[in-house]
Every structure is written in C-alpha cells, then in structure tokens.
Amino acid sequence: MEIIDQVKDEIKKQLLNQKVTDESVAKSMGVSSRTLQRKLKAQKTTFKSLFNEIWLDMANKHIQTKELPLKDVAKLIGFSNLSAFSRAYKRLTGVSPSYAQVEE
Questions:
Q1: Which of 7, 31, 86, 102 is most buried, judged by most C-beta within 10 A?
Q2: Model pTM?
C-alpha cells in the first residue's frame, strides 16, 4: 500500500476517536513524524493537505445527506464547536457549510 493511502486510512481511523496529528499517525505507522514528513514530501504532498482532504470529504458526505445537524458534523470530524468548523470549511471551500447544505 502506498504511503499516501496508509496515511489517509490512519487519519480516517483516528479522526473518529481522537485528535489527529502527524505525530499520532506516524506513531501508529511505526515511524517518526520526521520520517513521515520526508516520505510524504517525496510523494509531493504534506500531512496537512491529506488531513484537510479527508475531513473535508467526510464533512461533505454528511452535509449532503443532511442527516445530522452541522454542529454534530463538526464534532464527528474532530472540531470542538460549529464556529471553528465553519471557519475551516469556508477557508477551504469558499462557502459556509450551511450554504453548502442548502445548495445540495
């Protein structure tokens, strides 16, 4: 399995149970965080970009289904409150999650 796929899988696992960091992912993969950074750099990516891709994908899936209130979506993907989630979502997508939910 490619390093990018391994990191994405580990982020998904950890996102549901704990605060995800490059250190926590590296530790679970049995490497140092510096080694993980080097391996990702060799693949022309970063931990932050993979992390953002995963949580945004998870958020979008929940936003599209409209089964959960946005505050629950925020908590599910590791944000302490809706405000922090909304700011991060808007920074990455250009729209607020409530606007994205209406548009779907």
A1: 7
A2: 0.84
